[in-house]
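The data are set out underneath:

___
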Amino acid sequence: DGNETFHRAAAIASVTVTGALTRSSIVAGIASTNATFGDADDILAAVAGTLAQSSSIGALEIGAGSGTNAMNPAIPHAFAIQAAAIRSLVNAGSIAVNDFADALFLDAGTAGEDADDVLVRLIP
């Protein structure tokens, strides 16, 4: 409703989704001005008082049907996994991704990138 307050000092220990992760966001310590995570206005949230540490998401494990890992997203997305740090992502039992210096997206549904694919990126 626009009255949300976001704080940088947020952490999610780990997330396991046994089925498909589609059209969903997992976000820690990120602020959005339009209530959509995965587009250009997402920024690291403000410091809350003396809590200056940055946000993080631990190990993520998502199930089959979440789409394939694809690199070089080029369009705004409506869903995202975002934090200042992400430890790892295992997509349907594949080898863990541990380097998020370059964003990626979960190409689900129709082949090729579209706004409903889940964007995975760091917001430093």
